[in-house]
Design goal:
Order of helices and strands: HHH
Radius of gyration: 14 Å
CATH topology: Helix Hairpins
Structural class: mainly alpha
Shape: elongated
Strand content: under 5%
Protein backbone atom coordinates (compact mmCIF):
# COMPACT_ATOMS: atom_id res chain seq x y z
CA UNK A 1 0.00 0.00 0.00
CA UNK A 2 2.90 2.34 0.69
CA UNK A 3 4.05 2.11 -2.93
CA UNK A 4 0.78 3.53 -4.26
CA UNK A 5 0.98 6.42 -1.82
CA UNK A 6 4.55 7.06 -2.87
CA UNK A 7 3.63 6.90 -6.56
CA UNK A 8 0.85 9.44 -6.06
CA UNK A 9 3.15 11.74 -4.10
CA UNK A 10 5.79 11.47 -6.81
CA UNK A 11 3.35 12.43 -9.56
CA UNK A 12 2.49 15.64 -7.66
CA UNK A 13 6.09 16.90 -7.67
CA UNK A 14 7.33 19.29 -10.35
CA UNK A 15 10.16 18.45 -12.74
CA UNK A 16 12.96 20.05 -10.70
CA UNK A 17 11.81 18.31 -7.52
CA UNK A 18 11.67 14.99 -9.36
CA UNK A 19 15.23 15.37 -10.63
CA UNK A 20 16.42 16.24 -7.11
CA UNK A 21 14.54 13.20 -5.75
CA UNK A 22 16.26 10.98 -8.33
CA UNK A 23 19.68 12.23 -7.21
CA UNK A 24 18.79 11.57 -3.55
CA UNK A 25 17.58 8.06 -4.32
CA UNK A 26 20.67 7.23 -6.38
CA UNK A 27 22.89 8.37 -3.47
CA UNK A 28 20.88 6.20 -1.10
CA UNK A 29 21.18 3.27 -3.50
CA UNK A 30 24.96 3.73 -3.63
CA UNK A 31 25.19 3.79 0.16
CA UNK A 32 23.06 0.64 0.40
CA UNK A 33 25.27 -1.15 -2.13
CA UNK A 34 28.36 -0.20 -0.13
CA UNK A 35 26.73 -1.54 3.04
CA UNK A 36 25.81 -4.74 1.22
CA UNK A 37 29.38 -5.21 -0.02
CA UNK A 38 30.74 -4.75 3.50
CA UNK A 39 27.99 -7.04 4.87
CA UNK A 40 26.54 -4.36 7.13
CA UNK A 41 23.18 -4.06 5.38
CA UNK A 42 20.41 -4.56 7.94
CA UNK A 43 17.44 -4.54 5.55
CA UNK A 44 18.25 -6.02 2.12
CA UNK A 45 14.70 -5.36 0.90
CA UNK A 46 15.45 -1.64 1.06
CA UNK A 47 17.65 -2.05 -2.04
CA UNK A 48 14.64 -3.29 -4.01
CA UNK A 49 12.42 -0.52 -2.68
CA UNK A 50 14.92 2.18 -3.63
CA UNK A 51 15.38 0.70 -7.11
CA UNK A 52 11.62 0.73 -7.64
CA UNK A 53 11.32 4.29 -6.31
CA UNK A 54 13.97 5.37 -8.82
CA UNK A 55 11.92 3.76 -11.58
CA UNK A 56 8.79 5.60 -10.40
CA UNK A 57 10.63 8.92 -10.39
CA UNK A 58 12.08 8.32 -13.86
CA UNK A 59 8.63 7.41 -15.17
CA UNK A 60 7.16 10.61 -13.72
CA UNK A 61 10.00 12.68 -15.21
CA UNK A 62 9.42 11.10 -18.60
CA UNK A 63 5.66 11.76 -18.42
CA UNK A 64 6.17 15.40 -17.47
CA UNK A 65 8.77 15.98 -20.19
CA UNK A 66 6.45 14.46 -22.79
CA UNK A 67 3.57 16.61 -21.56
CA UNK A 68 5.70 19.75 -21.85
CA UNK A 69 6.85 18.93 -25.37
CA UNK A 70 3.35 17.87 -26.38
CA UNK A 71 4.39 14.58 -27.95
CA UNK A 72 3.18 11.10 -27.20
CA UNK A 73 5.30 8.04 -27.80
Amino acid sequence: MKSKKTANEIKELNLDELKFKEIELRKEQLNLRIEKASQQLKNPLRLRAVRRDIARVLTAINEKERAQSGTRA
